[in-house]
Specification:
Layout (H helix, E strand, L loop, with lengths): L4 E7 L4 E7 L6 E7 L2 E7 L5 E8 L3 E7 L5 H4 L1
Antiparallel strand pairs: 1-2, 1-6, 3-4, 4-5
Amino acid sequence: MKGDRVEIVVDAGDTTRTYEVIATRAGRRVETAVRRGVVEVSEVTRSGTVVRTARFMATRVLALVEQPIPRDDAQAG
């Protein structure tokens, strides 16, 4: 959904860096995966097509914070 976002905090030697991957359009979502020592954060369309991907070495990732858009339960029903 538009507004979904993931923040990634990475060790950059003497400092830390923060990156964000945000679902830029309605109907898109952000997915995370850890494979073979690499953390992948991808923006995906409704049909499953990957729009963009950010990759980080898993040993350098300090924090991975998924922040979904707040949803109102009254609208869901």
